Amino acid sequence: MEFQYDLSQIAQDQIIKIDNTLLPVGYQKEDPELQMIISKILDKMGEASGIAQELKSPITSAEKLMRSDHILYLMTEQTSPGHFVVVGLLKMGWKKLYLFNKKGSRTEAMVYCLLDFYIHETRQRHGYGIKLMDYMLKDNQIQASQLAVDQPTNKLLQFLWKYFNLSKLVNQGNNFVIFEEFFETSSDKESGSDRSSGYKSQPTFGRHGAARQQDCMANILYGAKPSETQNGNSNGNVDRVEYQQRDNKQHKEEHHVEVQHHVVDEGDGHKSNQSNHTQPKLDLKNFHTQLW
Fold this sequence. Notes:
alpha+beta; Aminopeptidase; seven-stranded mixed β-sheet; 7 strands; EC 2.3.1.108; GNAT_ATAT; transferase; Atat
């Protein structure tokens, strides 16, 4: 987007970092004229971004930036000596969010959020977007997977998938989008731990905190494995499994005695070898009543 302003004093680098003073970060002097120029640029770019995203009203403006602690990255391009065009903007800010991971556990965290991202239509598909994003990530020493994205468009989701391989969304109870990789680090992937545990301030209750019931036919016939009885089963479940094991053993012994009483003696007065090696068959119908 072209503006009839001379930005040579602040556009020495292609990307300008602006805070709520409406001046570049690190700008040492007061400059009302420059503030007015930046204010008009932000209003125009914010309006264009809102139209591109089909929003009811712009989410970026000079007034909104002044009333926040957000940071805005403004990308410019010099087309001729003393003549600059504004290519795009990227607005970032910290927010305290309640997040849900893919297991349903709730966490509370301060998350760096992508609030607005726009590249002018005349400069799209020319690499400006990824250059602006990479600059922001390096400036904050953060990865794209650690961001929360506010109401992303399909075009932005495709952009994140193309350049950062982010596609596995985790549904949230707000307008922000979090990817599965947000809860992972390189060490977590090896150990299987959950990064979200570091943000928990209180235990999770409700249906997500309930332990899964381990009642199945394998537990009844063969008994629960030690690892199963130690991973979240209540004492009542352990006692029930032990009772079922003892009952199974007693029933097996009684059945074995009954089988031996019905062995037929052969002519030489000895029992057949086959009857000695016969194993009792468990009648599964006797065990169904223990399930209910």
